[in-house]
Design a protein that fits this description.
By secondary structure, the protein is of the alpha+beta class. The protein has 3 helices and 4 strands, in the order H-E-E-H-E-E-H.
């Protein structure tokens, strides 16, 4: 099992992310894209990466918006897996015009 990280410490290195409200340790990012196709294309890229890493986001999509929550369920909090996926999300969103 992966080691849990302190959410506040993690967020210092991920300025576009926020702590998930509530009792469970998790991080969240909200993204907007030009349109539905751009948002769905972003989600497809992240999905392929996440599947290879065997670490999947909790997320939702409405038109051009994507909400992402990352936590490692079997560790009961945020781990290096979440940090790695968050960095990939940030890089991919920047490359695809996500804000």
């Amino acid at each position: 099992m992966a080691d849990r990280l302190n959410v506040d410490a993690v967020l210092k290195d991920l300025p576009l992310w926020r702590a998930e409200p509530g009792d469970r340790p998790a991080i969240r990012r909200t993204l907007k894209f030009a349109d539905f196709n751009a948002a769905f294309g972003f989600m497809t890229r992240v999905a392929l990466h996440a599947d290879k890493a065997d670490h999947h986001p909790e997320w939702s999509n409405v038109y051009n918006g994507v909400e992402i929550v990352l936590t490692t369920h079997d560790a009961g909090g945020v781990t290096d897996k979440d940090v790695t996926l968050a960095r990939f999300v940030d890089e991919t969103a920047a490359a695809m015009g996500g804000k």
